[in-house]
Amino acid sequence: MGDRLDGHEVRDPHDLHTRVEVQLDQAAEEVARRLAGTRSYGVVREAVTDAYRQLAARAKVHAFLPILAARLALQRLQEVR
């Protein structure tokens, strides 16, 4: 649990980054599973990370970005087959 400031919880930004990385790992695992071994995990993880960065640069709300990044990465990787 984070510290409190004026009655509001203040989260450690490192903790938030760690959570996003875990979500991106999970997203990449799901995309890799859906691609049934046609791409290595490293290629899939890189595609998910790139998609996440692209979406995050324009997003106002970041809550669902790992899911959206997974969908975008899957679409891109399927197009390259």
From TrEMBL:
Top-rank lineage group of the source organism: Bacteria
Domain Protein-tyrosine-phosphatase-like N-terminal: 24-78
Protein name: Protein-tyrosine-phosphatase-like N-terminal domain-containing protein
Source organism of this protein record: Saccharothrix mutabilis subsp. mutabilis
